[in-house]
């Protein structure tokens, strides 16, 4: 069955990008539902859809209902929303598909494995979409829809998906945190932040061809304790960053745990 009509529940980053991708693919978005009227209206306008704030007003007579709301609100929403046989999916990386069982007999997951910001454009065709269906028909319909949106479609089980989500936290969220730290240090010391861009690009490029363990460089992997200790001293007035530096250093090279000076978070003062 080809997906021709849809309803979007949510108006955040993921809902916005998926909604735009569906609209671009020629799928008619009939409604955008969000408790925040301004957000629902703004997204609905972009998608040429109606906006509603009450889930009870959702039109169930569509090909698919895509729920893209906060994980902690999903279970409560599904207990109240009843969509009969309409294929109903969520976009969460951590919630099981069965949370939708109370809403529909046909349900699944359409999880885009990417970082989204509303106003930052991206090629949705390159975004990996991870799908799961509670039956063959639901999975078949989801696969056809996902292949319309992206060149990269994966069947990921409910057991695998939370681990994939953790992979995303490490590879994206924590990486961005480290870039935030670098941005802070650049601002504090008058260094242009863009100087790190080629370094970032090369780091990402290498792991497309090498296992990350083989691509690791820097003082930690070399076991250069003197450089590490110097850096820890420089971060003495920034204890959180100092601790982040130490934790990551020891994760890269556990053998440095044998260095007592490093374990005590910097150089000991000589008596």
Verbal overview:
The chain is α/β, with parallel strands linked by helices and 271 residues long. The protein is 45% helix and 13% strand. The protein has helices spanning 13-24, 37-47, 71-80, 136-149, 161-188, 197-206, 212-215, 219-222, 225-234, 239-252, 260-263, and strands at residues 5-9, 28-33, 50-52, 64-67, 87-90, 107-112, 129-133, 153-155. Strands 3-2-1-4-5-6-7-8 form an eight-stranded mixed sheet, with helices on one face. 31% of the residues are buried.
Distance between the termini: 78 Å
Query: How many strand elements?
Result: 8
Could you give the order of strands across the largest sheet?
3-2-1-4-5-6-7-8
Mean pLDDT: 93
The main β sheet shows up as:
8 strands, mixed
| Uncertain stretches | 267-271
Written as H for each helix and E for each strand, in order along the chain, the element string is EHEHEEHEEEHEHHHHHHH
Instruction: Name the overall outline.
Output: elongated
Q: What is the gyration radius calculated from CA atoms?
A: 23 Å
Helix proportion of residues, in percent? 40-55%
Tally the helices: 11
Structure classification: alpha/beta
Proportion of strand residues: 5-15%
């Amino acid at each position: 069955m080809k997906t021709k009509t849809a309803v979007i529940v949510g108006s955040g980053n993921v809902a916005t990008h998926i909604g735009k991708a569906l609209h671009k693919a020629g799928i008619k978005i009939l409604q955008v539902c969000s408790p925040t009227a301004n957000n629902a209206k703004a997204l609905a306008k972009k998608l040429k859809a109606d906006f509603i704030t009450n889930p009870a007003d959702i039109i169930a007579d569509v090909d698919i209902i895509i729920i893209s709301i906060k994980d902690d609100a999903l279970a409560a929403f599904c207990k109240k929303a009843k969509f009969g046989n309409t294929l109903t999916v969520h976009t969460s990386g951590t919630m099981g598909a069965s949370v939708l069982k109370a809403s529909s007999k046909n349900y699944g997951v359409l999880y885009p494995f990417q970082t989204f910001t509303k106003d930052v454009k991206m090629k949705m065709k390159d975004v990996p979409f991870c799908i799961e269906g509670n039956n063959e028909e639901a999975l078949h319909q989801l696969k056809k829809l996902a292949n319309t949106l992206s060149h990269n479609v994966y069947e990921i089980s409910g057991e695998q998906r939370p681990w994939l989500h953790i992979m995303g936290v490490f590879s994206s969220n924590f990486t961005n945190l480290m870039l935030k730290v670098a941005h802070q240090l650049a601002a504090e010391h008058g260094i242009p932040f863009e100087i790190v861009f080629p370094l970032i690009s090369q780091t990402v490029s290498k792991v497309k061809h090498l296992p990350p363990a083989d691509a690791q460089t820097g003082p930690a992997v070399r076991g250069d304790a003197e450089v590490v200790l110097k850096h820890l001293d420089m971060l003495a007035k920034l204890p959180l960053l100092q601790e982040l530096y130490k934790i990551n250093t020891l994760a890269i090279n556990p053998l440095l745990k044998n260095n007592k000076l490093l374990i005590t978070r910097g150089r000991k003062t000589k008596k």
